[in-house]
Amino acid sequence: MSATSAKIVQVLLPLPFDKAFTYEVPEGMILQKGSYVEVPFRQTKMVGVVWDMAPTETPTYDVKSILRSMDLPPLPSVTQEFVEWVGAYYLSPKGLVLKMALSAPTAFKEMKRPRKISPETHSLNIKEAALTPSQETCAQMIREAIQRQKFTPILLEGVTGSGKTEVYFKGIIEAKAQGKQSLILLPEIALSTQWLDRFMSRFPEPPLVWHSDLTEAKRRETWRAIAKGEASVVVGARSALFLPYPDLGFIVVDEEHDGGYKQDTGVFYQARDMAVVRGKLSDATVVLSSATPSLETIKNVRDGKYTKCTLEARHGGASLPQVHPIDLRKKERKKGEGPQWISGLLRESVQATLGRGEQSLLFLNRRGYAPLMLCEACGHRISCKQCESWMVYHKSEGALRCHHCGQKDRFPTHCPECNEEGSFVACGPGVERVAEEARLAFPEARIEVVTSDTLTSVPQMTALMQRLENREVDIVVGTQVMAKGHHFPYLTLVGIVDGDLGLTGGDLRATERTYQLLHQVSGRAGRAQNPGAVYIQTHVPEHAVVQALIHQDQENFLKLELETRERYELPPFGRLASFILSSDQGDKVEQAAWSLAKAIPQRAGVTVLGPSPASRSKLKGKYRWRFLIKSSRNIRLQPFLKEWVKNSPLPSGVRLQIDLDPYNFL
Ligand code: ADP
Ligand code: ZN
Fold this sequence. Notes:
Layout: E1 8-12, E2 21-24, E3 36-41, E4 44-52, E5 68-69, H1 77-90, H2 94-101, H3 133-148, E6 152-158, H4 164-177, E7 181-185, H5 193-202, E8 208-210, H6 216-227, E9 233-236, E10 248-254, E11 262-263, E12 269-270, H7 271-281, E13 285-290, H8 295-302, E14 307-311, E15 322-327, H9 344-355, E16 359-363, E17 372-375, E18 392-394, E19 399-401, E20 408-410, E21 424-427, H10 431-441, E22 447-450, H11 458-469, E23 475-478, E24 491-496, H12 510-522, E25 533-538, H13 544-551, H14 554-567, E26 574-583, H15 586-598, E27 606-619, E28 622-632, H16 637-646, E29 654-660
Helix pairs in contact: 1-2, 1-7, 3-4, 12-13, 13-14
The chain binds adenosine-5'-diphosphate and zinc ion.
Residues 384, 386-387, 402, 404-405, 407 line the site of zinc ion.
């Protein structure tokens, strides 16, 4: 049969290609746009999606035939549009975006006896909480938006514990009543047991959970249930956004400001932004929930693009914690004493908290014992060979770890440079070191270190929550894993060990992020009946971030921060993109960067900075160079970037990654 007379379709494959491939439809096979099909590709077989029913051009070569089609509802056309949209915006091959939508490879395998998710009972046995007046106002706004079935983005703002979760639960009920699916995105799904418990206390059935740690069987079941429209509520990590929901009516992005929504591998995307896009494509209501919304979202509210609803008080009348600065410049160190990470005032407060039988959190966003080990004999510092960054000492394991690539070495007994024995001194604190000091200062207290090293699974998280609830722990020394949305009823004191960490990050969001994180940590104190207190140790008590926290004056802080961004045309007032070039060979990547620089197209309003070696000039064994591209808000960067790349083919062995709206500048 000649190719022209055959029935031919375009199939997009989950591979790094932007174009769909042409295949012949065998006699008798009925297909439509969106059908999942297995096709031969190179030496293997692969499942793709019928992207178009017609050929883009008449093939002049032998076209291979589709092997089989899957007995599943077709990929919804909104998902197809979404894949197109994301690919075009992030300049990423559509096939790679599709891969995220098909991210359960075994979902297409024939199973002998497939396990099935038990069908939902559609029982409406929901234990509703009676809402406070301000909760009711917000809930009503969300319900009405869902009923209208028109795209509506809403910022739900309220301090931690003000009852935002209860409010968007009402949206889930409404969406379900409309026969639509709801998707709740959480920044750290693997550790969100409290959220699930909460959900279970309100709803008769658990939601489907989606994240990268699911077993293959669970992935398969979940993906198929979603594709078939059998799941009304899905809670997941950012990747859940790409699943093939037939009729998604309600999306929540919880803690919308959280940096975890930005993906910096594969397809570089910001899930919060794409949730809004996804909502627009299916006329959904999108709730962005936060105590400290991102500046991007705040600007959208000010521009009238998003509606805002605010929850005023903490639920149950619990008062907000008092925030006090501790000026470290005034700290006196007694002669002969080692460094002290817990100042006198903070120490007294912890002691008093212990006395009342309550719990304290000492917060430091640095894992391990010390961020740098220095040889006292020769000045040698231990760095990672893969990354050119300092190795962090983890005393509990007797190991040095690289926090960029995960490299782990035994802590050396002798200096590798001068061979002196036991010559290393620790510089700066990590949580282990603060815990060591706390053990000396409060010998009677039960102290626990909590970081992503110690909390690696859901059961561990649940056990920790139990110990805290049973008051088996007095002091937690923890990193940001302690900051996230959990509720600790007996925790009444938060001591921020280094309030300056993060203020000097040098990237445009450093201040914003520090404020959000410290605000979030502060919110851990005094959530139940007991009022809490927060102490911030700092060398710059006059800094806008510290002042905003002390006076609980978010407005003024935002005003300052927005003014700065506007003055320099930085996001959300301007646009940014990064080019990251990397290679195993340093000279090759440098040459490629300079030849790319020669091909920069001229465009009014677009500025290109660089090339320059990245500040992580070597990461995981790759040498890295960067460009930063800036423009004002009214210029789309994509056409410019595309033209640039088209004009300058890269040598083999050099990789170019494009990061639109970057969050990471290292
Ligand atoms: P947020 O999401 O803003 O941090 P939550 O929704 O988690 O706040 O609410 C904080 C606490 O208050 C939770 O324990 C929740 O069960 C409780 N709560 C919130 N609203 C109500 C309500 N209307 N009735 C009873 N309890 C509520
Ligand atoms: Zn490394």
